[in-house]
Structure formats: structure tokens, C-alpha cells
Specification:
398 residues; 52% helix; 6-stranded mixed beta barrel
Length: 398
Amino acid sequence: MVALDRKLLRDLWHLRGQLGAIGVVVACGVATVVTTRTAYTSLVASRAAYYQQYRFGDVFVHLKRGPASLEPALRAITGVAIVETRIVSGVTLDVPGLAEPATGLLVSVPERGRPALNDLHLRHGRWLEPPPGGRDEVIASEAFTAANGLAVGDAVGAVLNGRWQRLRITGIAISPEYVYEIGEGGLFPDNKRFGVLWMRRDAMEAAFDMTGAFNDVSLRLEPGAALPDVLARVDRLLEPYGGLGAYGRDDQVSARFLKDEIAQNRVSGTAIPAIFLGIAAFLLNIVLARLVTTEREQIAVLKAFGYTDWTVGWHYLKFALVALSLGAAAGVALGLRLATLTITRYAEFYRFPEFVFRLDWTALAIAVLVTVGAAVLGAISAVRRAVRLPPAVAMQPE
């Protein structure tokens, strides 16, 4: 081991308290990058897989009442690939164990087969029984049943178009349309007092006097379709039937909240770490500046014995790199642990069939490079002072 390396180890040990404080600040910044970026990429990957596998719609529109004969006209719109017409209605629910009435959203599904769009992922139980039986069966959303302690086989009361009916839960499911499950006009989920129920379409037609009609449409677009043109044509077609205005996936309530959460992760993973690493660079500059000041005579002796400016400068730069590298390594380990915990929390709040853990290697590389940059930035002023000190000047007090 060369003499300067032994000196470096002694300096690191002597200033371990100050370097430990800098390392903690760096670890916080790097951990924030790793946590937020890993959560971001995992959330994006999980959302994309869910939307694709369960055929989440691209366009949605609610109307007063439209005849089934409109379906061919909707399919004929340029850019439309799949059309799914439904009956959707708000209902009042009588939930066992709940003192006050709850509200629910009743959504129709085909009598046979699965929905062409916005398909359900069954967590427990079975699909609805096909006709002629099963008119009182529903599939309930997982968040609602979990909040109220309901299970497959339980029943809830519901007021359907002014008539009370007992609905039996045959399955518990999640849907890409209700990852973030909130009632109309709400800002935060209240899963105890609001839930989504799926019922066979023929049963809903009878209950709401909607035979041969629908009041809700989901569309899947072809690749490259012009969304504004499709929205305009859908609105023109449904306006005589009380259409409330078509909107794209980005404006769908659940998808919008999820999109905002992802965007927030991206911002926090950039701004907060920059603050931490900026503070670390500032502290490192102070520590090295003091070290160079107290070691003026040693620097003079080193140069007098033939050590070049580059060798002396590299010695102090290594001091900075070692200090921040230890903090960066701790930050990566802490960030991975926090990312795992964050994704576990996301899995409880955002209901996906499967949460994909995807490590963002680019973010890790950026975090390490930014840490090195902060070390160089914090050390550059002190290193420049050490390099510029002529031996004759450095031998004298400052």
C-alpha cells in the first residue's frame, strides 16, 4: 500500500463522524431514487399487463337510453375495433353489519361468455350462472367485500329501480375499470360504503326496463386510430339518445387517478434526491476545504518530495469518492427494501391480478453516476486549492 493510501485510510477514520453524516444524506437521496423509480416502473408494467390481458377500453360514454340497433353504427365508426354495450346503474345497498345504507354501481355482463372489454379477474367463487337461473346472482368487487367482511355465498339487499331485491354473491372479482374504486363525485375510496357489482344483462334488463337497450358503451380502438375523431363521431351518434359526452381512457376516473400516482412517482424520484445530493456535495466541500487547510504543510512536503499535482489532487478526490460511495451502496440496499414495501402497499390499494416487481437498472446507474458527480462537485474546489499550492507557499501559515 502506497503512503498516500495509508494517509487516506487514516483521514477517513479520523473524520468518520462527519463522513458518516454525509453518507446518511447520500443514502437518503439514492434510496429515494431507487424506491420511487422501481415503484414507478413496477406500477407501469403491472398496469400495462393488466389493461392488455383484460382488454380495458379506450373510449367510454354514458347515455340516457339507446336501442341495441345502434351497435352496428358504433362498430362502423372508423378506428373502432370492439364495441361493448352495457347497462350501468347506481343502486342503494343494504349491507349486513352496516348501520346506514351503502351505494353501489351495478354493471351488466353478458348472459353467456365473458365481456369483450373490461373483463373481470375472479379472485374467489364462480362466474354467474347462465339463463334461465341465476337472476339474483352478482359478482362483487374485492375491495367492497373485504371492507365489509362479505364472502362468496353471502347476500346483500338492493333497491333496483324502486324494487327491493336480495342479491347473492357468487364471486369476488377485480376489474381494470375499477382499480381505483370510488363513487360518483368522490375523491377517495370508501370501500365500506361503495362497491361495484356485476349482474347478468338479461336480469338487469328486466329489473330496469331496459330490454333491447343500453345506457353505457365501451370501445376498443384500432392501433393508430385518431381519438378526437372517434370521440366526435360517437358524440354525434349518441347525442339524440342523451349521450353525456364520450371520453378517452386518460379521463376515465380510475385510470386518471392511477396515471397521476405514476406521474407523482416520477417527479418525486427526481426532485427529492437532487436536494439530498446537493446538501451532500455542500457538506463534502466544507469537510475537504478544512482538511486541505489543516494539511497545508503536508501538501508542501509531498510536492517537495516529487508528488505531482495530479497525484495530490487524486488523493483528495478519492477521499470524496469513498465517502459518497459508501452512502450510495447503503442507499441502493435501503432503496430496494423500501421499493419492496412500497409495492406491497400498492398491491393493497391498487387491485391488480399480479404486481410485477421490475427493477429500474437505468435509475440505479443514474443514481450512482449522480452520486459520483456530487462527489466531484463537492470536492473540486478543495482539490483545486490543494493542486495550486506551491511548496514554498504551503510551508508558511495561511
